[in-house]
LigA protein (Streptomyces roseus), 316 residues
Amino acid sequence: MTAQAVHTGAGPKALRAVALAATVPYLVLKSAWLSGSRVGIPDGSPLLEQGTFLAVANAVTLAMDASVIVLVLVLTRPWGMRVPSWLLTLPAFVATGLLTPILFAFPAQLLIRAAGQGSPAASGEGARAFLDPWVFTVVYTGFSVQGLALAGLFVPYARRRWGRRWQGVLGRGLPSPTGVVAGAAALGGLVIAAVHLYWAFGGTAGLGEEQAAARSVLTGVVFAVHAMCALAAGVGAVLLARGGSRAAWWPSALTWTGSAAALCWGLWQWIASLGPQLDGGEPASAAVRSIYAGQMITGICAAAVLTRFLVPRREG
C-alpha cells in the first residue's frame, strides 16, 4: 500500500471531515464574541465586564482550536510524514492533554444529568449566569468529537512513523537517574490523585468558599478524572523506568496520556487562576493553586521519563 493510499483512504477521510466539522461551533462562537456579539452570553454575565482580558483570552483559545485544523491536515496528508517530529508531537501532546479529561468527564456528566442526579449545589446570592447552558453542551460536544477523531488519526500515523519506538517489549530498565524522576512522578501522582478524590467524594478542605459551596456530583466527576490522569502519569512512568517483558505500547500510551493531561490542565488552570476570574467568582485558593502546580510537576516528570524511554529506541 502506498503512502498516498494510506493517507487518503475512506477511514482517514471520514475522520478528517468529522474532526474539521467539530471545530466549527467553537470557532464560530469565538469569532462572534471577538466581533462584539453577545450570542450565548446572558444579561448580567461577568463576561460582559472583562474587556481587554476577555478579548485576548478569546483570541488565544480561537487560535488553539484553529491549530486543530493544521494538526488534522498533518495527520492525513502525505506531506505530513515529513513534518519534523518535535513540530508535530508538541501540539499533539497538548491536544491529548486538554481533550482527554473532557472525553471522560463530559459524557459522564451527560449520563448523570440524564439520570436526574446532576443538579448543582446552590450558589451564593450574588451568583450570576456565566454563559447560556446550551453553549457548554455545544462546545464540549465539539471537543469530545475532536478528541475521538484526532485519536483515530494520530494512532495509525504514530504506528507508521514511530512504531518501532513504542511497539515490542519494554526491555532493559532505564538508568537510575530516570528512575528517580519516575519515582517523583509516581509520588506526585499519588498525592494529586488523593486530593482530587477527596474533593470528588465531598471533601471541601482547601477549596475556596464559593468553590466549596458550588460542589456537586458534576464537579466531583471532574475531580475524579483529574485524579485518574495523575495516577496514569505516575504508574506509566514507573513501568517504563522498570522495563521488563511487558508490551511497550500500553505503558507508553498510559504515560503519554496521563502526563499530557496532568501537565496541560495543571498549567491551564494555574495560568487562569492568576488572572481575572471570567466567571466572576473568587480567585483560586493557595491550596488549589498548589495542586495545579503539583499536576504540572507530575506531568513534566512523567513526560521526561517517556522521552528518555523513546529516544534511544531507534527506527528500523
